[in-house]
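Work Package 3 (structural annotation) set out to generate three-dimensional models for the target panel prioritized at the project kickoff. During this period the team completed the workflow that converts sequence records into discrete structure tokens, so that structures can be stored uniformly alongside our sequence database. As a representative example, we reproduce one entry of 268 residues exactly as it appears in the project archive.
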Amino acid sequence: MGVGTSIRRILGRWGGPFGPEPAADSAGGEQSLIALEAKLGHVFRDRGLLRNALLHRSHIHVTGQDREQSNERLEFLGDAVLGLVVNDLLFATFPESSEGDLTKMKSLLVCGARLSEVAVAADLGIHIRMSRSEAATGGRLRSSILADTTEALIGAVYLDAGLPAARAVVERLVLKGAERVLKRRSLRNYKSRLQEMIQAAHKSPPRYKVLSVDGPDHDRLFKVAVTFDGEVLGTGEGRNKKAAEQHAAQQALAKFDGDADIPSGSED
């Protein structure tokens, strides 16, 4: 689904970036939860867990609740459950692979960029409860928020129905197309791949530039651009500079994977 389509759906569902947030127990809110359950392939026995998984900290802040009531604790749990399920699958599927290669494959399948792709495919952004200001600045499309909420949902499913149910959701959403993901992306990190591709044709490596740093000291969001010969190849976000650079390199590689030409210029 294109970004334009996603934005139109968001505006139709939420009444625009400054529209009111629906009450969790409203008819519209319940229908939204039911629709999301269908995409997850899991019907919650305790729908309060599902609501909690969709509760971004920005909404907690404006309503005066404690931060612990946001989805961050579920995100912590979901990250561990996701790692276990993916590790188990990789261990069984690749018996000849080394620990190092298994670790690299896992990182490709559970990285923030991959989880963000999963969330976009499930239209997760329209279901997240966040502050109006967060929504107005593109929060429903922000990769870090989408990835974190995906992990929170996995944690919620685990608490609701145990590991088998969580495994089914991970396999349905995150591991769907895993072979394609692993084939498409090298076992090396994105920055290394991009540098090797460009230096194979030129003598100079790409360069990375921090575009912005938002948020308080304990919860920063970095935005970075990767460039070559003055041309922006990709941009990325992350909770630290290194993660943002990896995301930017991934975006650049996605263009090359789509048969885009490597820039022909050179840098001094």
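The chain has a mean pLDDT of 80.
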